[in-house]
Amino acid sequence: MANISKILIANRGEIALRIMRSAKEMNIKTVAVFSEADRGALHVRYADEAICIGPAPSNQSYLKSDKIIEACKLTGAQAIHPGYGFLSENANFAKEVAAAGLILIGPTPEAMEIMGNKLSAKAAALKYNIPMVPGTEEAITDINEAKERAVEVGFPILIKAAAGGGGKGMRIVEKATDFEEQMHLAVSEATSAFGDGSVFIERYVTSPRHIEIQVLGDTHGNIVHLFERECSVQRRHQKVIEEAPSSVLTEEIRQAMGKCAVDVARSVNYVGAGTVEFILDENLDFFFLEMNTRLQVEHPVTEMITGLDLVKEQIKIARGEVLSFKQEELKISGHAMELRVYAEDPLNNFLPDIGTLQTYRTPKGNGVRVDDGFEEGMEIPIYYDPMIAKLITYGATREEVIERMIRAIDEYDITGIQTTLSFGKFVMQHDAFTSGKFDTHFVSKYFNADSLKNDSEEEALLAALTAVLLLKKEDKISLAQNNVIANNWRKNRKKYS
Ligand code: MV4
């Protein structure tokens, strides 16, 4: 069994803190690395030791594998947790870490390499009987041949970049006459974005739900799944709300998807935490799309419904331990939801909104978990991902979790920057969401800035009414009382209208 008494966390923000907390509970020392922009960051303060690895831009700091490995040598850390993003799915980094005699808390470089390419991922999965969207199994080399295949598969079709991920380099083709042109565009896009112009085609599933299965594999060949996460509420391939379990899966489909996910993982002898991504069509048929070889942003919803700590499991696996539970011992209890709180303006096309957190107060109480990496007064750096926190609610039923999420959003007090909290509330109150009848087009179908503006107009009206009330009363009234009046009015407005 490998000795791990000190871990270096090659990441920043909420996920760095999230990892350190689990390490601490396991009596493992932590080393933070940070860029010059993150000197005062919480992950730096939380860690037992911290090392500056370069200037703010991530290609000069958080992506510098040599600096990170050097920091391990300097501090005596035996293992590296890469978190998500940055170097987490970089097979070359995984190789460098191993060559330096260190442990990467994650899968093997081979598994990363295969799953890093959608075509090799599908080829590996073919060893098992995994449902896949009809299309081409190899990169397209001959346009006419590909066009014939597209006609066979049926339009609309989707051209995907083999090296792409998260929706980058995808093009929908509606009809055969557009095929050639779109093909050329896709190849040149893929070449400039990924340095690899390989593309393939799939039938386009027009109204899919995005459902993914969490898996865990140990170094002894045991692989289990931890059920699904529903991630259909996203915009521009950026997830905003995730939940577990999905409200559409039957126990039978859940089991079938879970088995497929375990098989996909087995096809590359998967070790560690990973996620197998599927789309589910209107007939509830599911198809394997790709596998993410990292701990994902949305892992907390799985933790809430299984009672497991995925970071602890990752560390135990890295130490060489045997998984301490069998598939049959795992079950779903309750329901969990996550809202990603981005520093973005939902009224302005979700443009990143940088600045200082003038007020920052998190919601508390039963069934609420906030994974964040900031404090009041801190500035959101422009160099990195604009996600400031994850708001997770947990409860007995989906209804309770939605009500709790709305309560938590109302309690969350952030000023100084615009956030996606208001958008989250919009979703929680939308019939398509509450009824569970939604797909990956939810945001483009139902959301526009006006849906939130109504809310702010209502608040403006409220302020005006309060002012009138105050004038009429003519006695001195404190700001606090003013708020009480406003809140009471808000609560009772349905009765008044
Ligand atoms: C698809 C699809 C429809 N048909 N493949 C987007 C991200 C990448 N992982 C795969 N994606 C899709 N692949 C076929 N054959 C629709 C999507 C898709 C999508 C998938 C999951 C979550 C959100 C999405 C938003 C738009 C499109």
UniProtKB/TrEMBL annotation:
SUPFAM superfamilies: Glutathione synthetase ATP-binding domain-like, PreATP-grasp domain, Rudiment single hybrid motif. The keyword Cell wall biogenesis/degradation does not apply. It comes from the Bacteria. Its EC number is 6.3.4.14. This is Acetyl-CoA carboxylase biotin carboxylase subunit. Keywords: ATP-binding, Biotin, Ligase, Magnesium, Metal-binding, Nucleotide-binding. Residues 3-448 form the Biotin carboxylation domain. It is an enzyme of class 6 (ligase). The lineage of its organism: Bacteria, Pseudomonadati, Bacteroidota, Sphingobacteriia, Sphingobacteriales. Residues 122-319 form the ATP-grasp domain. SMART domains: Biotin_carb_C (SM00878). The keyword Magnesium applies. GO terms for molecular function: ATP binding; biotin carboxylase activity; metal ion binding.
